[in-house]
Structure formats: C-alpha cells, structure tokens
C-alpha cells in the first residue's frame, strides 16, 4: 500500500540520527529504485502481505511485512535506530493519506550479519510487521 511506504519513508527521513548514520536522505531509498548503490545505504521494500481478518464491526485489517536492508559498517547502530523508530509504534497519520486509517508496527525478524562483496561493506536485513486498517472506500 502506497500510504505505508510514504509513512515509513517520512518517519525515517524525519529522524536526524538515522539520516546522519545513513549519510543523508539520498541514501534512504525504496529498494527497487534505479541508480548505482551508495554506501552507506538503507533500503526497504514490501517483503510479504498477509491477508487480514475481519474484526469488530467487520473492520478489515492487514498485516504487511517490510524488509529493511542496511549496507553499512555501522549496521548495529542503524538496526538499533530502526527498532526505536518502528518497534511498538502507533502512527499518527497525515490527513493527506487516502487509503490508510490506522497503522501500528512491531519488530519481526533480524537476519545474520553479512558482507556484500560487490559493495565491500557489511550488510544486515531486518523486518517489521505493519498492522493496519484501511479507510472505508464507500462512497466513492
């Protein structure tokens, strides 16, 4: 959902500590943007989307898992900052968002330390679950 990606990006780029660790806002990107990788770099993408359920008065929910990939020798600091930004977060959403009514996130998984040989830098993958409720689309 586009609104989730917008919210994730806004949260990361508004955090001066994370931006500094990543080398600027230009080093925080959606994973599938074109261009040569810059080191350090933080990318994110929708890893999987699990169908939601009906709760309460038939409110639809969704459960999306986003993976963040860190290309940096400071990956422990960036990982800790991401956990601070997204683990147990209840978002205050912008009224400009058209699809999203409620959004919360929690830490889901952290992969092993790795090394990207082509970029010659440490690599780390971390995932967060985003639980949300879309806005009602009726009437259109």
Task: Describe what this molecule looks like in 3D.
Helices cover 22% and strands 41% of the residues. With 140 residues, it is an alpha+beta fold. The chain has one domain: STM4215-like (2-Layer Sandwich), CATH 3.30.2000. The strands form 2 sheets. Strands 1, 2, 5, 6, 7, 8 and 9 form a 7-stranded mixed beta sheet that branches. Strands 3-4 form a two-stranded antiparallel sheet. Helix 2 runs antiparallel to helix 3. The longest helix is centred in the N-terminal third of the chain and has 12 residues. The radius of gyration is 16 Å and the shape is elongated. The mean pLDDT is 90.
Any key phrases for this structure?
22% helix, alpha+beta, 7-stranded mixed sheet, STM4215-like, two-stranded antiparallel sheet, elongated, 140 residues, single chain, 3 helices
Per CATH, the class reads: Alpha Beta
- What is the tally of beta strands? 9
State the secondary-structure class.
alpha+beta
Instruction: Give the helices and strands as they follow along the chain.
Output: HHEEEEEHEEEE
Mean pLDDT: 90
Q: What is the number of helices?
A: 3
User: Can you tell me the CATH topology?
Assistant: STM4215-like
Proportion in β-strands: 35-45%
- What is the CA–CA distance across the termini? 18 Å
Residue share in helix: 10-25%
How would you characterize the largest beta sheet?
7 strands, mixed
Instruction: Tell the overall outline.
Output: elongated
Rg measurement, Å: 16 Å
CATH architecture: 2-Layer Sandwich
Regions with little confidence, pLDDT below 50 for 5+ residues: none
Q: How many structurally independent domains?
A: 1
């Amino acid at each position: 959902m586009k609104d989730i990606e917008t919210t994730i990006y806004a949260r990361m780029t508004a955090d001066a500590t994370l931006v500094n660790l990543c080398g600027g806002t230009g080093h925080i990107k959606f994973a599938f943007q074109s261009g040569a990788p810059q080191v350090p770099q933080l990318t994110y993408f929708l890893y999987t989307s699990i169908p939601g359920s009906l709760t309460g008065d038939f409110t639809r929910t969704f459960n999306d898992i986003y993976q963040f990939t860190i290309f940096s020798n400071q990956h422990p600091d960036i990982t800790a900052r991401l956990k601070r930004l997204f683990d147990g977060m209840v978002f205050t959403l912008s009224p400009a968002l058209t699809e999203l009514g409620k959004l919360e996130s929690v830490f889901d998984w952290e992969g092993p330390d790795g090394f990207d040989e082509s970029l010659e830098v440490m690599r780390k993958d971390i995932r967060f679950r985003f639980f949300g409720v879309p806005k009602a689309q009726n009437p259109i």
